[in-house]
Amino acid sequence: xxxxxxxxxxxxxxxxxxxxxxxxxxxxxxxxxxxxxxxxxxxxxxxxxxxxxxxxxxxxxxxxxxxxxxxxxxxxxxxxxxxxxxxxxxxxxxxxxxxxxxxxxxxxxxxxxxxxxxxxxxxxxxxxxxxxxxxxxxxxxxxxxxxxxxxxxxxxxxxxxxxxxxxxxxxxxxxxxxxxxxxxxxxxxxxxxxxxxxxxxxxxxxxxxxxxxxxxxxxxxxxxxxxxxxxxxxxxxxxxxxxxxxxxxxxxxxxxxxxxxxxxxxxxxxxxxxxxxxxxxxxxxxxxxxxxxxxxxxxxxxxxxxxxxxxxxxxxxxxxxxxxxxxxxxxxxxxxxxxxxxxxxxxxxxxxxxxxxxxxxxxxxxxxxxxxxxxxxxxxxxxxxxxxxxxxxxxxxxxxxxxxxxxxxxxxxxxxxxxxxxxxxxxxxxxxxxxxxxxxxxxxxxxxxxxxxxxxxxxxxxxxxxxxxxxxxxxxxxxxxxxxxxxxxxxxxxxxxxxxxxxxxxxxxxxxxxxxxxxxxxxxxxxxxxxxxxxxxxxxxxxxxxxxxxxxxxxxxxxxxxxxxxxxxxxxxxxxxxxxxxxxxxxxxxxxxxxxxxxxxxxxxxxxxxxxxxxxxxxxxxxxxxxxxxxxx
Amino acid sequence: xxxxxxxxxxxxxxxxxxxxxxxxxxxxxxxxxxxxxxxxxxxxxxxxxxxxxxxxxxxxxxxxxxxxxxxxxxxxxxxxxxxxxxxxxxxxxxxxxxxxxxxxxxxxxxxxxxxxxxxxxxxxxxxxxxxxxxxxxxxxxxxxxxxxxxxxxxxxxxxxxxxxxxxxxxxxxxxxxxxxxxxxxxxxxxxxxxxxxxxxxxxxxxxxxxxxxxxxxxxxxxxxxxxxxxxxxxxxxxxxxxxxxxxxxxxxxxxxxxxxxxxxxxxxxxxxxxxxxxxxxxxxxxxxxxxxxxxxxxxxxxxxxxxxxxxxx
Lengths: 633, 313
Ligand code: NA
Ligand code: NA
Prior knowledge:
The structure holds 2 protein chains of 2 kinds. Chain A is mainly α. Chain A has 2 domains: 35-264, no CATH class; 284-406 and 415-471 and 508-631, no CATH class. Chain A has helices spanning 7-13, 21-65, 73-94, 103-107, 110-141, 155-158, 160-179, 182-208, 212-227, 232-247, 253-263, 270-283, 286-298, 304-320, 323-340, 345-358, 366-375, 379-385, 387-405, 418-443, 452-467, 476-506, 509-518, 523-542, 544-561, 566-581, 588-597, 601-624, 627-630. By secondary structure, chain B is an alpha/beta fold. Chain B is 46% helix and 19% strand. In chain B, the strands form 2 sheets. In chain B, strands 1, 2, 3, 4, 5 and 11 form a 6-stranded mixed β-sheet that branches. In chain B, strands 8-7-9-6-10-12 form a 6-stranded mixed β-sheet, sandwiched between helices. Chains A and B meet through helix 3, helix 11, helix 17, helix 22 and helix 25 of A and helix 2, strand 8 and helix 7 of B. Bound molecules: sodium ion (NA) (2 copies). The site of one sodium ion has 6 residues of chain A, from helix 14. One sodium ion binds next to helix 14 of chain A.
C-alpha cells in the first residue's frame, strides 16, 4: 500500500542528507531500531499466516476426508488469528498503511501537511497509550478463563492485544524519531496533549449532557479526526475511549473486549487467506492468464473489465458470506490488469465498494442468516428472495459503468479472433476453474466458508508448481508480510468500530428510534422510506450485523403490522444497510475496499457518488416493487 | 414516577431471541421492579447478544461494564468449571429430578462456586431445556446410530467428550454458522433444546428430531457483585423477589411450550422419535465417560448429583 501518502514514508527513502552529525547519528539509530524491530515482527506475522493455513487445512482433511473432525482447529485458528491481527496492525503501522482520509491533508501547504502527518502518528500514540493499561487489565482478567477446546488459559489469546498495542507504541516512537524534525514532533505532541487535556478538563460538564455525548463523540470527534487524517481505526478508538472514559462510569476495558471480539470473528480469517490466495494467483501467473482470457472476450467492449468485476463479485459473494472476504477474493486478481489497461484506481475501488453493497443479499449471506435468527423469518426464504434484488442493483451499477465508459477510447484495442480466444481459454482454464472449485467445495460441504480459501491456496500452489514455471517463489515471504499488514489494517478498524457500536447500543437509543419510526404518518410507503434512510445511517455507524441484531426485532413486527412482506422488508433493509456500510466517510466496508484495492480513500470518494446514486435508484425499485423480493418464493 | 430519571440504571444482557420465554418473563419482571420501586430502578434488557457474545458479556459483567446478565451454566464453565455439572450426559431423566437438584444441593454447590469469582447468582435457575438431536440423514434411536455421525456441538468440553465417548464425530462450529453447515452437510446433525431448533430454523435443513434428552442446562441470572452491593437493601429485595418469581413462571412456560413445539416442528416437517436412554448410559459408562468427569468435578460434587440423578458411574 505504498500508494498511501505519507511524508514520514518519504523520510525513510532519503534519510537525513544534510543534517548535523548528532542528528544523523540519532536518525541512524532510529533506522537500525526500525529495521531490527520490523524484521522480527514481520517474520512472526508471516509464520502465523502459514500456521493458520495449515491448521484450517488439517481441519478440512480430517473432517471431510478422514471423517474424524478435529474439535480444536477453530479455537486454535481463532487464538492465532487475534495474534495475526495484532502483529499485522504493527506491521501496517510501521509502513503507514492504516487507512487515512488524506483529502484535506493533501490540499494543505507542505509544512501543514508535514504537521498533520505527524499529528496522525501522535494521535495514534495517544490512543495506544490510553488503551494499553486497560488492554493489560483485560488480558490479566482472562487468565481465569479456560478455553473450551484446547483447555488453555484464555490469556494466551487475550495477551495478543496488549502485546500488539505495546509494539505499536514502540513503533510510533520510532516513527517520530525518524521524522528528524524535533520542533515539528514537539508541536504535534503538544497539540494532541492540549486537545486531550481540554477534553479531560471538560469531563464533568460532558457527563451532565447524557445522550448528547453520543453526537459529540461519535459524530463530532470521529468526523474531525477522520478529516484531519488521523488513521480511521484510531479515530474510532479515540472517540470510543473518550466517550467511555469521560462520560460514563464504565471501565474502558470493555473497549478492549469489544476489539477482541470484533477482530477475531473466525469468518474474518478468510480475509487474509483470500488476500494471500489473490497474491498467489497473481504470482503464479494464473491471474494474468485468466484476465487475458476475459479481456479477449470482453476487452473490445467499453468498460468490459468493470462488468467482469461486477460478475465476479456476484459469483463470489455466494461463497463466503463475508463481504470483505469477497472483495479480497476478487480485487487482487482483477485490479492490477485493470489498472494496466488504464482504469482509474479511484473508479475501481468505488465500483468494488459499491458491489460490496449490491451483493449483500446474495446467499449465503451472514446478514440474512442473522435476520432469520433474530426476527423469525425463514432463512431459506431469505436466501431465495435475495437473488433478484442483488441482480436489480447489479443492473443499475452496470448502467453507470456503461455511462462512464461509453466514450472510452478503444481505437487501439483489436477484437480477438476465435482462435485467440480459444488459446487464451486453454491457458486460463486452471484459473477459471478455481472459483468453481471453491464454490463446489462449499456447496458439497467439503469446507466451511472460513476454510475454503485454504483449499484454494493448495490448488493454486499445485497448479503454480505444475503449470506456471515463471512463478516467482521468492516473493512468497513479502506476500505473507503484505497479507499480514493488510489484515492488521482492516481488522483494527473493525475492532475499534465494534467498540463504537457497543457504546451506541448500550445507550439504549434503539427503542426510541423504532417508536418514532412506527408513529410516522403515511403508512407502509413512508415506513419503508424512513427505514431506508435509517438503515443507511445505521449501517454506516453500527456496521452491518450489529445494526440488524439491534433493530431487526424492533422493526420487523412493525413492518408486518403495516402489511409489508417480511422478506421484502429484509431485502430493503439489508441493501440500505449495505449502502451505509460501503459509503464514505463512515462506512467501514469502504475503507476495507480501499485497503484491499490499495487505493487512497480520497480517490474513490468522487467516483463512488455515481455508484451510490445507482444503488439508491435500484433500492428504490426494490422497495417499490415487492415482487422482486417475493416473486421467487 | 413518570418523567423522573431513574436512580439506578442497570443493563441486562442475554443471548436469547427477544421472543424466548426467558426474555418475555424478564421484561415482565423489569416492569414489576420499576413499578414497585416507583421508577427508582430502570433495567434495560439487551437480548440476542446485542452487547456481545457470551464470553464477552462474561468479561463485561466481571469488569462492571455490564451489571446483570443470564448465562447458560455450560458457558460459565470456562470460568467456573462447577457450573457445567448439570449437563452431564443422560444424568437427569426428567424435570422433577432437575428442579429438586437445582433448588437443592446441586444448585447450592454451583451458587457457592459462582460467588467465589465475585458474581452474585440469583436463587432460582431458569430453564434452557433438555437437548435433543436433529439429523438430515437418519433418526437417532441407539448409540450405534451416532457412530461417525457428524454432529455440530457447541464447544463445551463436557459435551464434546460425551459425543466422542459414543463414537460420534463432533464438529465444533459457532451457532451462527450452524445453519449453513447443516445445509451444506458439513455436519449431518446438531443438538439443542426444541425452542432453539425452532428459532434458529434448523427444521428447514433437517429431517429428523430424536428426543434423546441427552443433557439438561439452565440459565443463571447473575449480577456484578460490586454493583449489587452498591444497591440499597430494599431495592435488592424487590429485585430478588421479582426475578426469582419470573424464573418460576419461565420454567412452566418451557414445560408447556415443549408439548406445543413438538407439534409445530412436526407441522414444519420434522419427524420425531422417542429414544431409550438406558443404552446410551451404558455406552458412556463402558467408555469411561462418567469416571472421567467424576474426577474432573470432584467426588463430592458428583455425590450431590447422584442424590438427584440416581447412580451414574
Ligand atoms: Na453472500
Ligand atoms: Na462505520
